[in-house]
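cache lookup: miss for this entity combination. No prior model stored, computing from scratch. Input as submitted by user K.M.:
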Amino acid sequence: MTRIAPIEQRVAAIQGALDAHGLDTSKAVEELTHLAEEQWVPRNGARVVAKAWADPAFRKRLLANGRDAVAELGLAMPKHHRHLVVLENTPTLQNVICCTLCSCTAFTIIGLPPDWYKDLEYRSRVVRQSRTVLKEMGTELPPEVEIRVWDTTTDTRYMVLPVQPPETIGWPEEKLAEVVTRDGMIGVARL
Amino acid sequence: MDGIHDLGGKQGFGPVRYTLNAGAFHAEWEKRVNSLYAFAVRSGVFNMDEYRHAIERMEPRHYLTASYYERSLTSLATLCVEKGIVTHEELERRAGGVFPLAAESAPGRTNVATRQAFKVGNAVRVRSEHVPGHVRMPGYIRGKSGIVVGVTPAYPFPDAHAHSIEAADEPTYDVRFRSEDLWPDSAEPALVHVGVFESYLERAV
């Protein structure tokens, strides 16, 4: 036997082994897939950002203790995401998050990481060529904008609080949340 | 572990393959793998540090050519074999072909005895240590100096936690480095922040 088994067969093999060991996978897979597709979505983070824009007291609490503040909106984080640091952009400051060692994100808040975030190119280059990488991704920053990169290497998770577009000032929170994108909360786009 | 996974600052990679509204999954089996490994963690079969390290232990050529979720699958299967849930032979029988697993682990380590607490504003240096097991110190900060900008609650120490070794939980420090200090004359100017465990740090003089 020298041929590498097709990926679907390898997945079925490990699932079968777990089942045979008495760990019933079928219900868990259904439940966790539902969470990944329906619950861990960028809309959660968009609600957080919209509230921070509209409510200065919440913004202050969010910047002081992200995990407690998002819990106010009913948003939970996994056990191994012990701390949420919210990084505030300004007109002259752009924060960008990454995980050079793997793929860590605050996925219950800003959604599971997109393919490019987990790719070798972004992981290797964003810490060393941040301005060029952002430009390649469609965000060309003027030279006066300072870039701060945050490499996720511990149980701390990060999210970016984008600058509120001036034309949206005074909008209700539900409408504000519609302009917040996942890539804005990762920090590779400006709104 | 100075493995191929430690990608920060590596040169030669091409443009980021960026698309607007890119997805997290591109096939049904990817969702299944993601759920299965999360289920195994929830069931106490292994922890997140063991999971990460088993990905890092993949043969470098396999690591680089495997898709993200194939790496998840390989880690899950490796740990299930190492934990005695299934044998490698049984997995290959069930899969009907070769099922490549990650290589054996080097030993882990416990907390560094001389570690000390720091505060925001302290100048720190990352110890110039080479750890053969799991470690959350990207190679690009080894021996480099920066400033503490954040302090966290204590987290499980990954160098021990990935290897079933006893250790005290440790605070971590968000340390600010200048990219020009990390890669002199060879980086675009930026401030680069890394969450660094207490054991990895010493006071900069």
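stored under new cache key. The two ends of chain B are 27 Å apart (CA to CA).
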